[in-house]
Amino acid sequence: MVRLVACIFLASLLFQPTPSARGQGAPAPAAAPPPPPDPANGLKPCSTETVNGNCYINVDRRYPITLPTIQMRKGTHIVVKVYYPYAFETLTLDAGTAQAFEGTDQGAGLLTALLPQLKSATWSQAQSFTEASSVAPLSALAAARLPVIDCGVHQPDPTNQVVCDVKNLNTLLTQTMKPAMDYFRDANEVYAVAREILAAAPQPRDATATALNRGPGVPSAIPNPWENYADWRTEMLRRLHALGIATSDLLGELPGTCQKPTDPVPQGPWVAPPRLCFHAGDTTAPPPVLFGLPPNAAPLFAQLLADYATFNASNPDEQTRNDVAGQMENIEARYHRVQDEIGVYAFILPTAIGKITTDMQTLEGNIIVVPPPSAPPPSVPPTFVGDIPDPVSTDPADAGFHLIPSRMLGRQTVYTLNAQNRILNSLLQLPAATQKQAVVTITALYADPRFEVSTGAFFSWMPNRTFANFTTVSIVGGTTPTQGEIIINETTSSPPEIIPFAAANYRLGHDFRSFAGRRGAVYGTLAVGLNPYNTTVEYAAGFSFSWRFLMFSPLFHIGENTHLTQGEMPNQVWCGYGSAYSATTTPPLCAGSPPAPSTTTFWRGAAAFGIGIRIPTTFAATNH
Description:
Blueprint (H helix, E strand, L loop, with lengths): L1 H13 L29 E2 L9 E6 L9 E3 L4 E7 L5 E15 L2 H15 L11 H4 L22 H40 L31 H23 L4 E2 L26 E2 L11 H17 L4 H52 L13 E7 L19 E13 L14 E11 L4 E10 L4 E10 L7 E11 L4 E11 L4 E2 L5 E13 L4 E12 L2 E15 L8 E4 L22 E17 L3 E2 L4
Parallel strand pairs: 1-2, 2-4, 3-10
Antiparallel strand pairs: 4-8, 5-9, 5-21, 6-7, 9-10, 11-14, 11-20, 12-13, 13-19, 14-16, 15-16, 16-17, 17-18, 18-20
């Protein structure tokens, strides 16, 4: 009983009436699926100046640009997206080899900076067949002096009849060569289009920037494949279909395979029209109409020669005779030239058609299986092509297996954004490495050194004091100066003092993007400088703020200073000159040179501000 109730309940669920069957109208449309998450959501664009965390790189497929090396922190990754992708390409992000590099020895760099201070102190084949004379009209036929003649009827006048014979034979020769000439012209245009679409980037725009320059030999009627692939696809399929029909027409005038009554009948373009074998053992049969001059060409040429002889016998005026003689010279040369070319074309056409047919059928098939995009190019979303991760394991458990190189090494990896042109290299086969075309390369260096050295100069507000004996003088009435007292004089230099230095810097936190988007960072700084005023080595400590390679450092300067000892004071009087002084006066009369002031040095501090150039760590195969 329980099983019966359960079956009835399940059946009621499975056979619920639709909303329309219940009289509730049409069912609500299904909700559109949510868009896929953006892998670069919340990330910043990768900087070529800072050491990046997780970041992204956007590639413009129309104008791809290879960036400088992107420096990354340990364990981070780069998201790569391509904007304006081409509908006829498949993009892949392929990894190359990774390599570990040693960083430069910053300790040696610091010592080098200090030493001066211490010392002082496929588509390559395109068929090209031309027979310009076969399609170009005879220039003399356009002479205005010759009358307009109805050549559809016999002309009793010998001059008119010769002119009509020349025109008729010239038209016949043009019609004879036109199918082959049109075929090779159309094939050449398709080959030119194939070469153009293989380019890694579109052609540059012309001087007016209104349209793209097209590849050599590409007709202007072919739409732009990069910005308008749908119309390009339609036009190319139309041309290829027309070329297939022209191929069948040409093959119908050449000897080819014949069919027995039981053989399948070939159909469609690119194949020769069916023809039956004449005998049981035959495999080939001649065409109904053989490629070459039509049967009436020779009689028409003979009639021309006969009419020209009659024309000469009639002795027309000299001007007309010269004009007609020029017509005869041109048409005779063309008739014999076309006869020779018919033999050449009959020999090369089967091989050329076989080669062109194979290429064009492949191209047509590839275009068919590459549909146009569902939206016009400006609305096509960017293509996410992949991530570029740190090339080593970041799992601490792998450290014991030596899967993680030394932290002192920088790890560089190179990725290539490749494009496979599906028009020229179909994906319906295993792709060869040569079919991929490199668009851009992305080089990532995983290294984040914190220690750097710098060199420059800082401005110190520490005064430089010196003490020396000084004799006062007085001048009265413009007479000779009179010596007065000898005192201890103090001389103080006007700040700031300029002191060259070399510094060791340790970065605090990560670097960042500062003014104008350039690299910035904060450092703790210890500097050693040589004071040029007293030739002593002095020190400074503080912080540094970098902008690109410049460093600005508010510092606390610790240097040597001088003061008097033994109770001596500035402006203290030793002795004096003149009648006012004697051995018993205070101060006494100067009897000789007094001793120099007694001084000693001591350490003191002062504010300073430094400007320097940082020397960043670089990485190479060997730096020791």
